[in-house]
Model the fold of this input.
Amino acid sequence: MRSLILFLAATVAAPGQSSFTQQLWKEAAPVYRETLAHPFLRGLADGSLPKERFKFYMRQDARYLTQFGKALSALAAKAPDEKTSIFLNEGALATIRTERLLHQTFFTEAEFAATEMSPTNVAYTNHLLATVTRGTYAEGLAAVLPCYWIYAEVGKELKKRGSKDEGYARWINQYGSEAFDAKVKEILAMMDAAAARATEEERREIRKIFLRSVRYEYLFWDMAWREEAWRP
Done:
């Protein structure tokens, strides 16, 4: 009980102060606004996104999630307590079991096997794996946080708009759901607790890592919009 009280206390900002994650979101807000304005996401909402671009995105995302699951597993090994470790390991399993099921409605196994990771996808996943492997637990958590948080916020915003395309609506509803939002809130509490234990220098590094991942999230959608490929 004592450890639970300390954990909850660490996540609550002092009166008149914003939490660490609220500060992170404030810094990420300009990138998030650009993300919502991107034609890929606008096309998801109004149904005008070309199907081939969405399929390209889904194949790349499936490749991404394989590496993201590895990153969560590596991060779980550095977790400060058993509860957090279990949460992260369950997230790694959910990445494979639940989200891949959604992907498989949009492409065949043969198409997936033939998919080469795009340059942006390689760069983003290398950033995640390098950070969780070489960095501290807090740094690793900051690296993976935008994948959850940005998708939850995008999902909620696009859900308000709806989509004329059934497949796009299904994607939007998954990330705009209350269940996914609840998961994100748990991760935000974990981030606030980790930041409370960190030094000011460590928090500066956490901010840099977080914002880098936020930018990669934008670049991932932009990559799909351009159907990015390797050049000779």
Remarks:
- The domain at 20-226 is CATH 1.20.910.10 (Heme Oxygenase; Chain A).
